[in-house]
Amino acid sequence: MNDRFLFDGPPDAETSILLAHGAGGAMDSASMTAAAQALAARGFRVARFEFGYMAARRVSDSRTPPPRADKLIPEYVAAVQALKASGRLIIGGKSMGGRVASMVADDLRAKGGIVGLLCLGYPFHPPGKPEQLRTAHLAQLKTPTLICQGTRDEFGTKDEVATYVLSPAIDVLWLEDGDHDLKPRKKISGFSAADHLSTMAARVEVWAKGLD
Question: pTM of this prediction?
Answer without folding.
Answer: 0.96
